[in-house]
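Example record for the data management plan.
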Amino acid sequence: MIGCNQGWGCAGVLDHNLDDFELSESVNHVQGDYSELMLTTIDRFEAGEPVFFYTWTPNWTVSELEVGEDVVWLSVPFSSLPDDPHANTEITDLNGCPGKPCNPGFGVNDIRVVANTTFLELNPAAAKMFELVVIPLENIAAQNALMAAGENTDEDIQRHAQEWITENRQVVDQWLAEARNAGN
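Corresponding structural encoding:
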C-alpha cells in the first residue's frame, strides 16, 4: 500500500490500523516521497495493474484517479485511531465508497477560515465573505494536480485562481455583492 511520508500523522495511523486489523503480515506500508510514489501508482493504474494507496481530499490524486470511477474508498470494520479513539470517522455521503455510512478509518476534517474576532467586527464585509465562499473539493484537487504537474510557482497559482474566478464569475459576483451589503 502506498502510504504516507515518514513523520506525517497519517503514517502513524496507517501503521496502527495495519496492526489493529491484523494486516501487517499481508500489507506492506510503502513510504517515501508521496508525490513520486503516487505518480508511479498512476502509471501502474494506466498500465492496467492493480493499485492500493492512501489518499485524502482535497488532493491532486483524486483528480488523476477519479473516485467512484477509477478507484473506490475502502471502509474499515471499526474505528481505531491511536490518538483520538472517539473521533468521528463515519461519513454518510462519501462518493465512491460502497458502504453507507463509510468509515475510511480517519477522523473527518473540514477546511475552515479562522480570523481574529476584532478583525471580523471591524470588517463585516470580510466576515460575510468568509461565510459565503465555498470552493468545491474537486476544484481544489484539480488545482493541486496542476501544482503536482509542475505549475507551482507563485505566478502559476495566481493564474489558477484567476482562471477559477473567471470560470465561476457569476457565483463570485454574488459573493461579492452579499459581502458588500454586509459592510453597509
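Summary line stored alongside the record: The chain has a mean pLDDT of 90.
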